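Chain A, query sequence.
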Amino acid sequence: MDLAAVFEMTVPTLEVILRGSLIYLGIVVLIRVAGQRETGSLSIPDLIVVVLISEAVSEGFSDGDSSLTTGFILVLTILGWSIILDALAYRFPWFRKVLKPAKRPLIENGELNRRLMRRELLAQSEIEAQLRLQGIESIADVERAYLEPSGQISAFSKR
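Chain A, predicted structure.
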């Protein structure tokens, strides 16, 4: 076994970093445009999407270079961009608004925001399930509820 060949790159380092950067940033933009709803836990269809995106872009990351060095550079590139974007969102409020979704009003005085429900593909049964988890039995009992950036619903019942 040729140990040196395991680490030998066939694609220039700068190209690997550029490919990793463009793919990562492109996926971030596409997911942000696709909608606000991110959930704390992945459903089976969500997991399938993640796996398929991973498979679809895997070759584009390294142009066929499967060396450990290329893989490590790609991991560092992706983690670096993740840290940079989080730092920019922390430092600049305007960037946070672009990168991270804000809470959005889902229920006001017992009335559902149907427009938001359509935009986020939220069924009334999903909303009711999340309300039940918070001890609220009916949408009519809700003074205000928000769709949070995490995809969860925060609700305040009428007193």
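The helical segments are 3-7, 13-34, 44-62, 68-91, 93-99, 114-120, 124-133. The longest helix spans residues 68-91.
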